[in-house]
Hints:
Blueprint: H1 4-7, H2 32-39, E1 43-44, E2 47-49, E3 53-54, E4 58-60, E5 65-67, E6 71-72, E7 76-78, E8 83-84, E9 89-90, E10 94-96, E11 101-104, E12 107-113, E13 118-121, E14 124-130, E15 135-136, E16 141-142, E17 153-156, E18 159-162, E19 170-172, E20 177-178, E21 183-184, E22 188-190, E23 195-196, E24 201-202, E25 205-206, E26 211-212
Parallel strand pairs: 1-4, 2-5, 3-6, 4-7, 5-8, 6-9, 7-10, 8-11, 9-12, 10-12, 11-13, 12-14, 14-19, 15-20, 16-21, 19-22, 20-23, 21-24, 22-25, 23-26
Antiparallel strand pairs: 17-18
Amino acid sequence: MFAPADLFDLSQTEHASLFEGHTRAWEVLPRIGEYLQAKLRPALHNRCEGSAYIGPNVFIGEGTVVEDGAMIKGPAIIGRNCQIRHNAYIRENVLIGDGCVVGNACELKNALLFNRAEVPHFNYVGDSILGFKAHLGAGVKISNLKITPGHVALEVDGSLIDTGLRKFGALLGDHSNVGCNAVLNPGSILGRKAMIYPNVSWRGYLPPNSVAKNRAATEVVVLGARAVAS
């Protein structure tokens, strides 16, 4: 259920070797930093539009555009034909595949994006993995740290699985989609093609091809229909 191949098409990342020897996908999150230390060969093949800060421990592939105001601290590997848009903030230990979008006012830290994943508007992605063509709507936040002590635990069928991680945001399977202003609480896992509707606060595991939505009623009133006290 939570094996890397259950959630992700490993042919859609150049970093598939990161998952070798791991039976649960979240186990790779603490390894991203050491993986980058071993694999990173800094080089910049991108084009900048305006002024951007790019640190010394960064590789960027051909065809990628880095827009004005972006900050890429690194260590980071960014693939080909990506869009790193205005005011994007890419912090430490980030792996970004080919054809990805990291948009305005988005922040990434200790994260892996498979090819063509999109983080386009006002998003936070920390200690997380986004699968092939996974998409975050505007304002989606991934919470990666519990406000109470202890490891992040995942509840499945009434049982708790201790992930062993103090920081663990979310795993988004291939083609999953999260609506605007939703919040993914620590340890959230979305199966392939799962969908979160806008404004949902989600926790836990959402199976493949499932939809999570709010059921709150919306009241509609006619303007001027209520009497005004004199």
